[in-house]
Design brief:
Helix content is 29%, strand content 24%. It is α/β, with parallel strands linked by helices and 375 residues long. Strands 1, 2, 6, 7, 8, 9, 15 and 16 form an 8-stranded mixed beta sheet that branches. Helix 1 links the parallel strand 1 and strand 2. The N and C termini lie far apart (53 Å).
């Protein structure tokens, strides 16, 4: 008699998407291992801003907004549960999002009605009442008071602690080099330390997902998109709201630190920082919040987003290999789409009624070209 695999499911990738997925499957009763090529939570999970909303959400396709809306509803309870499970506070703050330029009022209002999200169109003077530190802006602004944020490195720590609490096996410094197949069915993954057997495998490797899946015969169009950011060491209260203009954002943290981002650069897997981006981001910071010019820059870094067409992730079964699934390509919105993506994929694996129509997230999925707005 052949011994059963030690795990029901292997999740390849230790970012937020992989950790959310592993937690969801473990809570459903599966024996789960998470395999990560370096340390968990060290790529886009660590590098991003943690805004719990797409930027200019009315510019995104229905498929992105559907995942975001589901996650936004569950996030307050989920974050409380993660803190209890891990002992780590993800530092959720309902800052609100103030968009001061580059938006379309009529389109924004239609979006707000469609998704039942609170939105107010305000004058620039009213915007400065909401955020006294605001510098330049257009003639009007959009105020989304319900938008929150998390400190995503701490969210990653909380998820790691929750996985350990639930009994998920976490294998770090274990790059996956390929898949073990028996006929047309996956039976595990290959690593430099040997094969790890499992009945189901999920690829949630962010910007590296397309590379990993290339050997399986599908051209998954997920590619790295570099984003550079700055961190200012300011004081609590210098900025109160998340601010966004046409190209850049400012995010205030609880302890007074302020993030400014972000660039969009298609330079492959290069995570180096540049003087040009530093100058651009400093100028954006001074434009949106002039007071930041008086505070030191504590850090300048770059991360790699998993870019995908129209920002729609792939949440689906592999079209040719039984037992192989994909949860990747979340581009700029992995944090806000993460919980819904994990739940939807778990529904597909466990053959449950899905929370959303899965067809837009299939490889070659049903994308409405009228909604496929570049982001």
């Amino acid at each position: 008699m052949v011994n059963p695999a030690p795990f029901d499911c292997l999740v390849v990738g230790g970012g937020l998407i992989g950790m959310f997925t592993a937690r969801e499957l473990r809570r459903a009763g599966l024996r789960v291992a998470l395999v990560e090529r370096q340390a968990v939570g060290r790529e886009s999970t660590w590098a991003g801003g943690g805004i719990l909303s797409p930027l200019h959400p009315w510019r995104y396709p229905e498929a992105v907004n559907a995942l975001a809306a589901w996650s936004q509803e569950c996030y307050p309870g989920l974050l409380q549960a993660l803190q209890e499970e891990s002992g780590t506070d993800p530092e959720y703050v309902r800052s609100g999002l103030l968009i001061v330029d580059g938006f379309e009022p009529s389109v924004a209002e239609r979006w707000a009605g469609r998704w039942a999200r609170p939105l107010e169109l305000v004058t620039l003077a009213e915007a400065r009442t909401l955020e006294p530190s605001l510098g330049s802006g257009g003639e009007a602004a959009a105020w989304l008071p319900s938008v929150g944020q998390v400190r995503n490195p701490r969210l990653g720590q909380a998820l790691r602690g929750a996985l350990e609490r639930h009994g998920v096996t976490v294998l770090e410094q274990r790059p996956v080099t390929g898949f073990s197949l028996r006929g047309s069915r996956v039976v595990g993954v290959e690593t430099p330390e040997g094969e790890i057997a499992a009945g189901t495998v999920v690829v949630a490797s962010g910007a590296w997902s397309g590379q990993l899946l290339a050997s399986t015969g599908i051209p998954l169009p997920v590619e790295p998109v570099r984003g550079q950011m700055l961190l200012y060491r300011a004081e609590p209260g210098v900025v109160k709201r998340i601010l966004l203009d046409a190209a850049h954002y400012v995010i205030p943290r609880r302890d007074g630190r302020v993030l400014v981002g972000s660039t969009m650069e298609r330079v492959g897997f290069d995570k180096s920082t540049t003087g040009e981006a530093l100058a651009t981001l400093r100028e954006a910071a001074a434009r949106l919040v002039p007071a930041l010019a008086h505070y030191p820059i504590e850090r300048h870094w770059a991360g790699l987003r998993p870019g995908s067409p129209h920002g729609i992730p792939y949440i689906t079964a592999h079209p040719h290999i039984e037992g192989l699934f994909v949860n990747a390509g979340h581009f700029r919105n992995g944090v806000v789409m993460g919980p819904a993506s994990a739940r939807l994929l778990a529904d597909l694996i466990l053959k449950r009624e899905p929370i959303l129509d899965p067809s837009p997230y299939a490889i070659g999925g049903d994308i409405d070209p009228d909604q496929a707005i570049p982001v």
